[in-house]
Amino acid sequence: MRAQRPAGAAPCVDAVAESLPFENQSFDAAMAFATIHHWQDPIAGLREMRRVARRVVVFTYDASDPDLFWLNRDYLPEFAGLVAGRPSLAELARAIGARTEAVPIPWNCADGFYEAYWRRPAAYLDEHVRRGTSIWARVGPDAEQRAAHNLRDDLASGRWAERNRDLVDLDAAELGLRLLIGPVPAPS
Description:
By secondary structure, this protein is of the alpha+beta class.
């Protein structure tokens, strides 16, 4: 990603979340978007963010129910193994004294993160869409191809539509995505 940055872009620092090379309270705010599941030690990384910034905002997911999203439940059971043993949402929030907010995903979300196409399942058949999310590299090519093949079959047969008929009229879905916003101000 650093190699793709345009000339003249803001400086980029090569570091890991668990050991940020900045002084205490160097920044007004720090943000992490759909990344802490890649960190070796998410709690340490969040504490580092809190150390270097007065405000921390993290977009992540509550892994307590991986089957909440139909793609995990019906096509990618490997997802549960990827989140097993990771810190709970409550532990993550406690690490930075954060409050949590649910993030409903609109049906026409254009961002491209993993859950973005929850009401447009055919998008997950597009290899370009899959390359845009790290889950597929993490589960490996065999699981990816199996999931895409089974989803393709279920879309063609109508099984996906039958199994997920409660989703097709929703404007937004609650799939476990959360904002951690911290620290929570002390009561006055």
